[in-house]
Amino acid sequence: MSIHDRAKSFCSSLLESITTPKSKNGPIVTLTYAQSLDSRISGRNGQQLALSCEESFIMTHRLRILHDGILVGIGTILNDNPRLTARLLGPDELESTISQPRPIILDSQLRFPLSSNVLKQSKMNGYKSPLIVTSYDHDSAKRKLLEQEGAVVVPIESNKNGQLSIAHLLSILSSPPFSICRLMVEGGAKVIKSFLKSNMVDLLIVTIAPTFVGVNGILAIDSNSTENQEPHHRFLYYKTPKQKNDDIIVPTQNVENSNINKRLPNNQIDSIQNNSSVNVDKSKPSINVTTSIIPKGCSPFVTMIIKWKTHGVPKNEKLEVRLNWFPSSRANSGPALWPGFPKIVLNRKKSIPTEIYMGKNQSLTFYVTIRSVHKISNQTVFNYVPIFAVKNPSFAC
Ligand SMILES: NC(=O)C1=CN([C@@H]2O[C@H](COP(=O)(O)OP(=O)(O)OC[C@H]3O[C@@H](n4cnc5c(N)ncnc54)[C@H](O)[C@@H]3O)[C@@H](O)[C@H]2O)C=CC1
Ligand SMILES: Nc1nc(O)c(N)c(N[C@@H]2O[C@H](COP(=O)(O)O)[C@@H](O)[C@H]2O)n1
């Protein structure tokens, strides 16, 4: 599979099951940005940094294709002069023939430069005119100039600090003539904060690059700033984080807009108990297995405590119990070991705690493998027995 095919399937899988937007009157909103290990999105004085590695950039460009609009703040336009197009494409794709997303810029005071790349490129075939969203309190002469150059300028409500209303923005974007169904928000820092605060983000995809920028860089989310003191909306892993060359891509979904929201409150989900009785051999030993699944804080990990009792196992006989577990998709394919899911050899110990990764919507089927070795006759009974399946365990948050 080529690097482009991998990006295609990864990005499609991220978007395919997000069908209901957080905002009832708006598009599905994906917020995505790249940060360093110390949470910086750019360097000293906002210096633009290539934090993403090549494969992560390819993923970002693929995500751009899958959205109808890409939104940034005017700070990013003035600082980076970005193009906001999908250019890192496969060999069979042409930049000018794919459906490029519309650039959307939040610019309360119409500081947008006439020389910007997004405006220049909109004159070329295949590229859409930038949509500049501004406040009612804008410079009308500048608006005229921008419109003459082909930009579309739309005034909307703003608050007393001049910040444009995200709710109003989303309802305008999803309506004609823009009809944006999927919006990708790239930043910068103020826009990231505003969107997270608005709680209209459906999918948050953060690329983490293995580098430190240092204290002078711009923080993605400045938790010291007073405007960020209010409670944060919660995001949980949506898909397993992926390593792309050097970087880690962390896809998370808004908890308040997903199935994981339907879980029970923390105090009702101390553990899930399962009891299974398994016969090794009808005439010979049997085992009774009890398991408890204990959520581990706000994380997709659970601790599983397995307890068992054996019956009728003669002292001179060896009983070996193994536990394997598989995602539900593999449950029918037999008990071959699923990579990344360790098997535990229980032997004669009476209980064992182990930590298991259980992603959202993950349903796991657990198998015990019982191997009873009769020392005298050397007869071996070898059984794989599915003991239970756990669907969507609740993560305590
Ligand atoms: N690493 C990454 O993935 C990215 C990094 N960046 C970096 O971010 C920096 C720019 O960030 P900022 O200076 O914070 O500017 P910004 O790009 O977030 O733009 C903020 C400006 O947008 C306007 N605005 C209007 N309504 C707003 C609202 N509701 N919320 C927020 N802003 C609103 C205001 O004029 C505000 O000053 C640059 O250094 C750029 O390189 C930008 C995008 C992605
Ligand atoms: N995904 C990602 N990784 C980085 O390391 C980045 N610095 C950014 N920045 C964003 O991409 C814009 C540049 O886009 P063009 O290549 O000009 O199309 C930049 O303005 C940021 O929004 N992104």
UniProtKB/TrEMBL annotation:
Coiled coil: none annotated. Pathway: Cofactor biosynthesis; riboflavin biosynthesis. GO terms for biological process: riboflavin biosynthetic process. Residues 27-224 form the Bacterial bifunctional deaminase-reductase C-terminal domain. Belongs to the HTP reductase family. The keyword Oxidoreductase applies. Its EC number is 1.1.1.302. GO terms for molecular function: 5-amino-6-(5-phosphoribosylamino)uracil reductase activity. Catalyzes an early step in riboflavin biosynthesis, the NADPH-dependent reduction of the ribose side chain of 2,5-diamino-6-ribosylamino-4(3H)-pyrimidinone 5'-phosphate, yielding 2,5-diamino-6-ribitylamino-4(3H)-pyrimidinone 5'-phosphate. It comes from Dentiscutata erythropus. It is an enzyme of class 1 (oxidoreductase). It catalyses: 2,5-diamino-6-(1-D-ribitylamino)pyrimidin-4(3H)-one 5'-phosphate + NADP(+) = 2,5-diamino-6-(1-D-ribosylamino)pyrimidin-4(3H)-one 5'-phosphate + NADPH + H(+); 2,5-diamino-6-(1-D-ribitylamino)pyrimidin-4(3H)-one 5'-phosphate + NAD(+) = 2,5-diamino-6-(1-D-ribosylamino)pyrimidin-4(3H)-one 5'-phosphate + NADH + H(+). InterPro entries: DHFR-like_dom_sf, RibDG_C, Riboflavin_Biosynth_HTPR. This is 2,5-diamino-6-ribosylamino-4(3H)-pyrimidinone 5'-phosphate reductase.
